[in-house]
Amino acid sequence: MRRYDVELDVPMTQHLLVAADRFDLTRLRAICESRLCDMVDVDTAATTLALAEQNHAQALKQACLEYVATHLARPYNYSLSYFQLNSSTFER
Question: What's the chain's average pLDDT?
């Protein structure tokens, strides 16, 4: 069996996932889902999560939720530290 490594960008892979789900192409759907799991980032997490929900891609949905959970905590911790610093400054 040959394996073709084709570079696909996120939007194209998302469109392929939708088509694969629509036409019940399980192998193509699995390939797209796997690739999208590897491509989740701050710019694509929300749209990819919605796409995963609409197209029955449970592994992709889980990958998006994990990405958001791990990256959402960082700014919150920074902002919390900032507010704690400011509130201690005003208590004097």
Answer: 82
Q: Evaluate whether 46 touches 61 at the Cβ level (below 8 Å).
A: no
Domains of the chain, start order? 10-90 (3.30.710.10)
**Tokens encoding 67:** 């990405």
pTM listed for this prediction:
0.72
Contact in structure between 29 and 20 (CB atoms under 8 Å): yes
SS percent in the chain: helix, strand, coil, step 5:
75, 0, 25
Torsion of CA 71, 15, 38, 78, to 10 degrees: -10
pLDDT on residue 41: 93
